[in-house]
Amino acid sequence: MSSEMLPAFIENSNVDKKQGINEHQEESQKPRLGEGCEPISKRQMKKLIKQKQWEEQRELRKQKRKEKRKRKKLERQCQMESNSDGNDRKRVRRDVVHSTLRLIIDCSFDDLMVLKDIKKLHKQIQRCYAENRRALHPVQFYLTSHGGQLKKNMDENDKGWVNWKDIHIKPEHYSELIKKEDLIYLTSDSPNILKELDESKAYVIGGLVDHNHHKGLTYKQASDYGINHAQLPLGNFVKMNSRKVLAVNHVFEIILEYLETRDWQEAFFTILPQRKGAVPTDKTCESASHDSQSVRMEECESDSDSSEEEYSRNELDSPREEKQDKENHTESIVNSLPH
């Protein structure tokens, strides 16, 4: 070997020795199971076991993901088939004709209501908003004098109200937003009976849940502001067993229904709750005469039987009337319908 090649050979052999030493050190530092020298800790053992399980279950997880995707795809297909009316609804929404009628919920009675009633009014407003969005002839919906307890309750429990569409939510009083000659306040104390809805007008519903504690308040307000007023023709078409007091959303929905059908009676009987016991006025006379005839026949057959039956009927009716009165006291009041 020449003297020139000797230094290079020595250098290469030194490098090989160092690599061998490093590999031997790395091999000796690796944890070896079953050997007594340098045993691994329990934590390291758990990590090794988990890693091994993770590797073994990789294919299983992949298979589960595939099955999940297939299942979701199948569910979407079934939902599209079952909800065939989805396309119909889109088609109907295209045929919507917006009414120029303005319908206002007057929220200026905030200081007259406790928190419990404020929450009821909030729910009724939510219902009005939802029904107007679904209506074939949606109105120009206004919420005026919005503030105080009502706004605070909506901020806390319904933060999405700030994103509501097709509604005008204003802190101002309605008299500051609409011309006086266009306003008609719906109040049951008004002597004027509403026959038709004028879509160029703005109708005001009193947003007051007072359990009939403030009778005549909306009529007084309309008179004080010099605003036209009227009551819905409920008494001309409907006879109810209970008090003729409806919630804000019921009045709102009746107007929406009338705009679609142009029939007051159909609008009333479509919207009125069954607990009201509403019947058409033309049928009440027939039922009354039929009842009187049946009573006379029962008296002829047996006076004692009729008296016992009448006694039992009265006992059954009295708790039912008390329960009905209790329900009526808990529902929201709006002075827009005749007594």
From TrEMBL:
PROSITE patterns: SAM_MT_TRM10
Basic residues bias: start-end ranges: 61-74
Record Gene3D superfamilies: 3.40.1280.30
Transmembrane segments: none
Name of the protein this chain belongs to: tRNA methyltransferase 10 homolog A
GO biological process: tRNA N1-guanine methylation
Gene Ontology CC terms: cytosol; nucleoplasm
Keywords: Methyltransferase, S-adenosyl-L-methionine, Transferase
Catalytic activity: guanosine(9) in tRNA + S-adenosyl-L-methionine = N(1)-methylguanosine(9) in tRNA + S-adenosyl-L-homocysteine + H(+)
Catalytic residue positions: D210
Domain SAM-dependent MTase TRM10-type: 89-279
EC top class named in words: transferase
Residue ranges, compositional bias (Basic and acidic residues): 14-35, 310-330
Quaternary structure annotation from Swiss-Prot or TrEMBL: Interacts with tRNA.
EC number(s) recorded for this UniProt protein: 2.1.1.221
Biased composition (Acidic residues): 300-309
Primary role: S-adenosyl-L-methionine-dependent guanine N(1)-methyltransferase that catalyzes the formation of N(1)-methylguanine at position 9 (m1G9) in tRNAs. Probably not able to catalyze formation of N(1)-methyladenine at position 9 (m1A9) in tRNAs.
Annotated GO MF terms: tRNA (guanosine(9)-N1)-methyltransferase activity; tRNA binding
Alphabetized InterPro entries for the sequence: MT_TRM10-typ (IPR028564), MT_TRM10-typ_sf (IPR038459), TRM10/TRM10A (IPR016653), tRNA_m1G_MeTrfase_euk (IPR007356)
Region entry Disordered, spans: 1-90, 280-339
